[in-house]
# Entry
Amino acid sequence: MLDIRNVNQSFDNQRVLNNINLQMSEGEILCLLGPSGGGKTTLLRIIAGLETNHTGDVTLDGRLMNGVPVHQRGVGFMFQDYALFPHMTVAENIVFGLKMKNMPEKERDKRLQEILDLIGLTGFKQRDVTRLSGGERQRVALARSLAPRPKLLMLDEPLGSLDAVLKERLLPELRSIIKSLGLTAIYVTHDRREAFQIADRIAIMVNGKIARVDTPKNLLLDPHTRFIAEFLGLHNIIPVQSYQNGITETPLGEFSIESSDSPPAALLVQQGGIIVPEDSKTDNPQWVEATVTHDLFLGETHIITVTHSSELSLHFTLHAYSQTIPDVSDRVYLNVSEWTLVPLVD
# Structure
């Protein structure tokens, strides 16, 4: 559906995109995830045709887009600030693009009603957009992007201005709408939680390069590099002191770890390496003693920080209603074995 080949872009002799290669299938939701300044929005603008002085090729639905103007690409674009026309009603905002395409009024009205029903704003036709809530404005902006039936929908930080509670509610709805229409979509964000909830695949962009493309599950289970692990919020990383013949020495002890690439620089402790009180310890796994040094209560969960005698600290999420929560200064044991450890390279 979308094929990006060897795309480069520079501004004022500063390289912003560096040899970007990316492919998407029809009906897929791809998330461009990365820190600010990583090139995500620039790549989106190149695909949309808003940036033209790049090298490399962009092919959409089998058609080379180089030199094709924005209005002939068949893409929909939703901005973070929504870019709604404040002097227009909800209906006028939504059908604006349809008027530009000279769609007949009867067909236009039918499409308007279809879209309003889809996004849950039936009866909002004559509402003044300046009087809508943030969530309602977000829906109108989405409706305007969907109305012309784009081949590709692109969303640049579409929920960035919403509060956390509203964002949590709208994300599943947004994914459901995109999927129900069979749309191909690119979603840009720097928030990993948004990416995990909405994407089929995630492309992590850093300093104008794509560091990795994979499913959310695969990225979490095997981030591969220390940077990706830390960026995804996986902070239980222990340094490797030595590695020889599959035996990895760390501050927590020795482990048998197979590394198919280069020798690991660090090991990621998955959430499976849970903490247990001393009286729950059995003889089977490899136990590592530690002391609880902090308890962050988040309502339904506790983030427990434990510190090993080597001064290495690890963090674990415990559900408040289903587990016994140790107190600060309690001695606990980490269930750390080969199946809870993932090798990382620098």
Notes: The domain at 235-339 is CATH 2.40.50.140 (OB fold (Dihydrolipoamide Acetyltransferase, E2P)). The chain has two domains: 2-224, 235-339. The longest strand covers residues 14-24.
